[in-house]
Amino acid sequence: MTPIATIELVLVVALALLVASIVYVWLRRRYISGGKPLMLCAISTGDRRWRLGLARIAGDRLDWFSVVGPSLRPGHSWIRHDLDLGAPRRLGEAVPGLPSDAVCVTGRSRSEDYELALSPAAYTSLRAWLESSPPGFNVNVA
After folding, report:
1. Tens digits of per-residue pLDDT, 47-71?
2. Cα–Cα distance between 133 and 77 in angstroms, integer?
3. Distance of CA 132 to the CA centre of its chain
4. What is the pLDDT of residues 27-37, one digit of tens each?
5. Which portions of the chain are predicted below pLDDT 70?
6. Distance between CA 63 and CA 73 in Å, rounded?
7. 93 and 6 in contact (C-beta within 8 Å)?
8. 3 state SS of 45
9. What count of other Cβ atoms lies within 10 Å of the Cβ of residue 88?
């Protein structure tokens, strides 16, 4: 095999891997969303390191998925009535991938404490979802 043919083969394989990776990321994102609201959100679970991900509101659950990685399962999952979000505050340091006006909110659930960083619009939709009553939950309360 000539050196030029070897270089061409390596470039074709590299290009095929790049295209396959892009297609996988796109398909994974489509699968994760499943037609439900999805937002860009970073999480910090105590080590003060932000990890960028996708938050999905699905019925009575909030699921968080890592942006990169092969897993189709959420890295964190919370049930709506177990969530307690604090007041939003300006994000001290910039998180790559989030807008410059992103807000940070401290959250608590039965199993863990964490911080979420997301855009103001995403925070508003998350807060509205959290404060709305799920179907069949306390329906007789006036």
Report:
1. 778 999 999 998 888 999 998 888 8
2. 19
3. 21
4. 998 999 888 88
5. 133-142
6. 9
7. no
8. coil
9. 19
Domain 36-131 has CATH 2.30.29.30: yes
Burial 97-130 (b: 16+ CB within 10 A, else e): ebeeebbbbebebeeeebbbbbbeebbebbeeeb
Residue at token pair 């807008």 = 99
Q: Give 19's Cβ-side CA count (13 Å radius).
A: 6
Long-range contacts of residues 49-56, Cβ cutoff 8 Å, at least 24 apart:
50/95, 50/117, 52/95, 52/96, 52/97, 52/98, 54/29, 55/116, 55/118, 55/122, 55/126, 56/32
The H or E element that residue 37 is part of is: none
Burial zone of 56 (CB within 10 Å; 0-12 exposed, 13-18 middle, 19+ buried) = buried
DSSP H helices, 34-136, are 120-131
